[in-house]
Design a protein that fits this description.
Blueprint: H1 29-49, E1 59-63, E2 70-73, E3 89-92, E4 97-99, H2 106-118, E5 124-128, H3 131-137, E6 157-160, H4 169-179, E7 184-187, E8 191-196, H5 199-222, H6 230-240, H7 243-260
Parallel strand pairs: 6-7
Antiparallel strand pairs: 1-2, 1-5, 2-3, 3-4, 5-8, 7-8
Length: about 270
């Protein structure tokens, strides 16, 4: 997972005004906490809108800006479609509730707690049982560079063979180590996991990775898809696979969902 936040040239080949937006900075931890929680609530609403909910499965975490070993996460058993910023609960890295009245999904923190402990640079992590991600996960293959969008993951994701039901904090750490700094993992027979330097980035990588899995499965069903060359994939990945690109591509979705469902900010 690249650490650069420079505006990708593909997204910013322009001269003069107006300039593209930049990732915001904050004058206080309290201000940044509100921002992260609102982005997290928006990500859950978008996951619901795109059909990523599956019963009580799925979770997105955001590291607290003041207490880096505390995390904001969805309450266990609450529909993604109803989550507001005020509904989020705060837990420590072992899943113990610090703030909030509802329980946490312990399987969520078997993955996320260990992952965040192993990858301190990761601010947010997203996992859900989306149809095309879990379908591709059964084939033991990677997201191939078949399209421009898929190139965001070229040489920047891994496949993890572990327990189908993850309940062990150490296994979450092992997932983090296996990712080797990458932005995503395909958990065999389980689904997709993405991470980011912002909530926006982690959520966008999940959304576009799921769609790339869908496109790959459709292409495989139709025939024998032709991959982009290594040099083409590397060039495109350098443009659309950066943290800024992930953050920026989430912004229209955020604006849309807040316009449609403003109560999520409460």
């Amino acid at each position: 997972m690249s650490t650069t936040t420079d505006v990708p040239t593909l997204l910013a080949r322009q001269t003069g005004e107006p300039q593209l937006p930049t990732i915001p900075t904050f004058s206080s931890s309290a201000e940044e906490r509100i921002h992260r929680k609102q982005r997290l609530a928006a990500a859950f609403r978008l996951f619901a809108k795109f059909g990523f909910g599956e019963g009580v499965a799925g979770h997105i975490t955001a590291r607290d800006p003041e207490e880096p070993h505390h995390f904001w996460v969805n309450p266990y058993g609450m529909s993604f479609s109803l989550i507001r910023a005020s509904d989020l609960i705060c837990v420590d890295e072992h899943g113990r509730v610090i703030y909030g009245e509802r329980p946490v999904n312990q399987a969520a923190f078997a993955i996320h707690g260990g992952l965040h402990a192993e990858r301190p640079e990761v601010i947010a992590a997203a996992h859900a049982h989306s149809v095309f991600g879990k379908s591709l996960s059964t084939l033991r293959c990677m997201v191939d560079p078949l399209t421009q969008d898929a190139c965001a993951f070229y040489r920047d994701h891994t496949r993890f063979q572990g327990k189908v039901l993850v309940l062990d904090f150490e296994e979450g750490r092992q997932i983090g180590r296996t990712m080797n700094g990458g932005k995503a993992a395909i958990l065999n027979n389980h689904g997709l996991l993405t991470v980011g330097h912002t909530v926006d980035e982690a959520a966008w990588w999940f959304i576009t990775m799921e769609r790339s899995c869908q496109a790959q499965l459709a292409a495989m069903a139709a025939g024998d898809p032709v991959q982009l060359s290594h040099s083409e994939a590397v060039e495109v990945q350098a443009e659309i696979g950066t943290p800024y690109a992930g953050w920026f591509q989430f912004q229209p979705l955020y604006d849309m969902i807040v316009s449609q469902q403003p109560d999520l900010l409460d």
